[in-house]
Amino acid sequence: MAKKEIIEILGIVTIIGSLIFVGIEIRQNSLSIRGETYQSIAEQVTRLYMDIAADERLSELVSQMLHNDNDTFRNSLNAADILSLEFIVLTGLRRIENIYLQQSDGILSDQAFERIGLRFYQTQFSKETWEIYKSGFDNSFIEFFEELRDTKF
């Protein structure tokens, strides 16, 4: 009997050890995925910034948008400039939506929203662009983004 009990105890200890090992591996994998996700977001932002910085016309448009935060700015632009700026804004909005979805899935924390450059989306032009295109976003994201944009400084 003692031999059988020892074998059972060893079996239970082995199972517990295996479960602890699996738990540690899952945690490390989750941290790795979170790190890769943050890196991917940073690379997306860097690419967008570099595209704008490398293009004198886009740099000028973004600069004007940030410094001419009034209702008449959009009317002072030609159709191509409006479209270019709208696409820049939409690219950023899709990035925020991606962060939102990953945060909703538990991959990212709320901290991810601290580095999105909210001031850019609080400009009049960005708000107008959002109103034009927001129907292409999920309703839960629309509510989330508008609250984020309007309550954070």
How would you briefly describe this protein structure?
The protein has 153 residues and is mainly alpha-helical. Helices cover 77% and strands 0% of the residues.
Please provide a written account of the structure.
The model has no long low-confidence stretch (mean pLDDT 87). The radius of gyration is 24 Å and the shape is elongated. The protein contains 6 helices and no strands. Helix 3 crosses helix 5 (124-133). The N and C termini lie far apart (71 Å). It is an all-alpha fold.
Write the layout of secondary structure elements.
Layout: H1 2-54, H2 56-67, H3 79-104, H4 118-121, H5 124-133, H6 139-151
Helix pairs in contact: 1-2, 1-3, 3-5
Structural class: mainly alpha
Average pLDDT taken over every residue: 87
C-alpha Rg (nearest Å): 24 Å
| Unreliable sequence segments | none
Number-wise, the strands total 0
Main attributes of the structure:
153 residues; mainly alpha; 0% strand; elongated
